Amino acid sequence: MEEQQLRRAWLRGYREGDVELAIARATLKREQLQIELDASRARSAAMQVEITELHRRLDDLRKREDDLNQTLTELRDHRDAMERDATARARDLVLEAEQRAAALRTEGLRQVGELQQQVEQLLALRAGLSAALKRATQDISDSLDRLAAAPARAVEHIPPPQPTGETVHELDDERFLR
Question: What pLDDT, in 10s, does the model give residues 96-140?
Fold first, then answer.
C-alpha cells in the first residue's frame, strides 16, 4: 500500500481532509482484506469438507477391499477343503476297492472248486470296480486339469465390480463358478 504523506495544517496538526482520506483508504483496504480472508476461509472449509469426504470414501473402499479379500480367502479355503476331501475320498475308494478286490481274489482262490458261474460273477464284479476306479481316477484327473488350466488372478488385477444391485457374495460366487 502506498504511503501517503499527511500535510500539516496551519497551527492545528494535520489537514482534516488528508486525515479523513487516509482513514477512508485504510477502512477500504481493511474491508477488502476481510473479504479476501472470508473467501479464503470459505475455500479452506470447502476443501476440508472435500478432503474429509475423500478420506471417508477411501476408508470405505479399503473396507470393501478387505471384505472382498476375506471373501476370496474363504472361497479359496473352501475350494482347498473340497479338493482335500475329494482326494481323501478317492484315496479311500481306491483303498477300499483294492481291499475288496484282494478279498475277492483270496476268496476265489480258496473256492477253486466252485462252479464257473461264481467265477464269472467275481470277474464281473472286478470289472465293475475297475470301471469305477477308472471313472473316479478320470474325474479326479479332469478336476485337477481344470484347476491347473484356470488362470490364477491376483486381487490387485481384478477390476472392481460395477454396482448392479447384486451382493458381494453373488459376484464372488459368479467368479468362483467361472
Answer: 999 998 888 888 777 766 767 776 887 888 999 999 999 999 999
Is the pTM here over 0.90, yes or no?
Answer: no
Q: How many angstroms separate the first and last alpha carbons of the chain?
A: 73
Identify residue 171 by its one-letter amino acid code: L
> Nearest 10 degrees: CA dihedral of 101, 104, 105, 106?
120
Residue 149's Cβ-count burial label (10 Å; 0-12, 13-18, 19+) is exposed
What are the CB-based long-range contacts (under 8 Å, 24+) for 150-159?
A: 155/65, 155/68, 155/69, 155/72
Please, what is the angle between helix 168-177 and helix 16-110, to 10°? 40
Report d(CA 176, CA 127) in Å as an integer: 37
